[in-house]
Structures are given as structure tokens and as C-alpha cells.
């Protein structure tokens, strides 16, 4: 279900955050931007609603790799009754945590692209969240000579960058499905 009424959606998120900060006794302030002004300048997120959190307790949101930020995004998406594939329309950030992480991912993509080009071999990133994997895939869309794929399961899912047309074969010479390990 797309976000049709940005004002109503922003108000629902504001109400949610007011309740959470009051009940949790969190010292946080927030600013919500909805609509075209919420777009990600780096183009790595498809956000339509952007929530910036600040205050003495903002550091709590960024601990453990921003786990609480992701949880707030999830709860906000559920509050707006968004489908799972639409959850990236909402983005929360605190202390520029996600903005800095997006820059790190973009730099990691550039470094990996050079490494794949020079070696001709695939490069596997460390496991990361689905949102960060998507950001990496988007960072690679500008490289016409490279491709990416996600591999692994659950919390161990990661991105692999490889030269376009690269075909992985196992020890017996059987062609395998990209990097999942399944024989074809």
C-alpha cells in the first residue's frame, strides 16, 4: 500500500514517537520530512519519509549497529500498514549514523569494484541487513561491467560483486547458480 497522504503518515509516526519517548522516558527530539523533500541525496534509499532523531539519548538508537533504529523503522512501517517490500520508504537516522554508514557502503563498493576489475575474481562483503544489502546493490548499478548478487541465509546473508558474465564452477566443473552453491 503506497503512502498516499504524507501529512497523515507523518502525524502517525509523530504520535508513535511521542508515545515511545514518553513511556520510555527517552530524551529525544525528532523531525519528520515527508514527500519529495525526504528523498535520499545519495540515491541509495527509496525513502519517502525521513525521521531525524536527536538528543541526549540518541546514542542509544545507534548502538549494536543501529539495531534500535531499524526496529523503529519496522514499527513505523507496520503502523502505516506498509507491505514488507515497501518498508524502505521510511528511514530513521540519529547522529548521522545511517548517513555515515551509507557513505561507508558507497566507498566499500568503489573499493570492491576496483578489486574485482583488477583481479577478475568475485568479492564477498560481510553479512549485513537487507536494507544495507539493497544499498550496496544500488551503489553497483553505475558499474556496467559488474554485477552483484545476494547469497547466504538469514543473518548470514551477504552481497557478492563479480565481473559481468562471471560463471562460478565447482571443483567437478559443474556450473553453480551464482554464489548460492546450487548446481545447474
Question: Which secondary structure elements does this structure contain, and how are they paired or packed?
Answer:
Blueprint: H1 6-23, E1 29-34, E2 49-54, H2 58-79, E3 90-94, H3 97-119, E4 123-124, H4 130-140, E5 146-151, E6 158-163
Parallel strand pairs: 2-3
Antiparallel strand pairs: 1-2, 4-6, 5-6
Helix pairs in contact: 3-4
What can you see in these coordinates?
This protein is of the alpha+beta class and 184 residues long. It has two domains: 90 residues, GMP Synthetase, Chain A, domain 3; 62 residues, R3H-like domain (Ribosomal Protein S8, Chain: A, domain 1). It is 40% helix and 17% strand. The strands form two sheets. Strands 1-2-3 form a three-stranded mixed beta sheet. Helix 2 links the parallel strand 2 and strand 3. Helix 3 packs across helix 4. It is elongated. The C terminus is likely disordered.
Structural class category: alpha+beta
For the termini, the CA-CA separation is: 37 Å
CATH domain class of the largest domain: Alpha Beta
How many β strands by DSSP?
6
SSE arrangement, N to C: HEEHEHEHEE
Q: How many domains would you count in the coordinates?
A: 2
Number of helices: 4
Please state how the strands of the largest beta sheet are arranged side by side. Answer: 1-2-3
Query: Beta-strand percentage?
Result: 15-25%
Helix content percent band:
40-55%
Note poorly predicted spans: 169-184
* Radius of gyration, CA atoms, in whole angstroms: 19 Å
- What is the CATH homologous superfamily assignment of the largest domain? K homology (KH) domain
CATH domain topology of the largest domain:
GMP Synthetase, Chain A, domain 3
> Major β-sheet, in short?
3 strands, mixed
Mean pLDDT comes to 86
General shape: elongated
Give the CATH architecture of the largest domain: 2-Layer Sandwich
Amino acid at each position: 500500500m503506497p503512502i498516499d497522504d504524507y501529512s497523515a503518515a507523518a502525524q502517525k509516526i509523530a504520535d508513535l514517537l511521542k508515545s515511545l519517548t514518553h513511556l520510555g522516558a527517552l530524551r529525544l527530539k525528532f523531525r519528520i520530512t515527508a514527500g519529495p523533500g525526504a528523498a535520499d541525496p545519495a540515491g541509495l534509499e527509496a525513502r519517502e519519509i525521513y525521521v531525524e532523531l536527536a538528543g541526549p539519548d540518541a546514542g542509544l538508537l545507534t548502538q549494536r549497529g543501529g539495531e534500535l533504529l531499524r526496529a523503529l523503522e519496522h514499527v513505523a512501517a507496520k503502523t502505516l500498514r506498509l507491505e514488507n517490500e515497501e518498508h524502505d520508504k521510511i528511514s530513521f537516522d540519529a547522529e548521522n549514523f545511517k548517513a555515515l554508514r551509507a557513505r561507508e557502503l558507497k566507498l566499500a563498493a568503489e573499493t570492491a569494484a576496483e578489486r574485482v576489475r583488477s583481479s577478475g575474481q568475485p568479492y564477498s562483503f560481510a553479512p549485513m541487513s537487507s536494507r544495507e544489502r539493497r544499498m550496496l546493490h544500488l551503489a553497483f548499478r553505475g558499474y556496467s561491467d559488474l554485477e552483484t548478487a545476494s547469497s547466504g541465509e538469514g543473518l548470514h546473508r551477504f552481497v557478492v560483486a563479480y565481473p559481468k558474465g562471471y560463471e562460478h564452477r565447482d571443483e567437478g566443473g559443474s556450473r553453480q547458480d551464482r554464489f548460492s552453491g546450487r548446481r545447474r
